[in-house]
Fold this sequence. Notes:
By secondary structure, the chain is an alpha+beta fold. It has 4 helices and 4 strands. It is elongated. The relative contact order is 0.20.
Amino acid sequence: MTSSHLLRFGVSIESGLIKKFDRFIARTGYGNRSEAIRDLIRARLVDEGTQDDAAQANGVLSLVYDHHKRELEDHLTDLQHDHHEMIIATTHVHLDHHNCLEVILLRGTVGKIREIGGALASFKGVKHSSLSLTATRELT
Ligand code: NI
């Protein structure tokens, strides 16, 4: 929450749409429409912000990869060392006998985070990857 003051405004919405929205609110646990609408607006602005390659952002990259490909762990670690200034933290989980999960937190420009995320995800032996970006300037 920032120190900016609250502003009220009226919105016209079709009854069918607001019923669906109220069911969404009930399912997801929002206390009221206002908080749900504020979060939807923020989500849309963050989406928009992460389309700008030059914007500052934080990224959460998760990789599931084959534990038995020994050279792969070296490649993943080497690339992270090459970009150490952007890597905030890395967590490794041994999922089962065959699979590792690595969660990497990144900070930098949208373009650079996408570039590093793509390079890490495209190594042979990475079975699944997911990158989530947050453009914090949109949240103020
Ligand atoms: Ni492991």
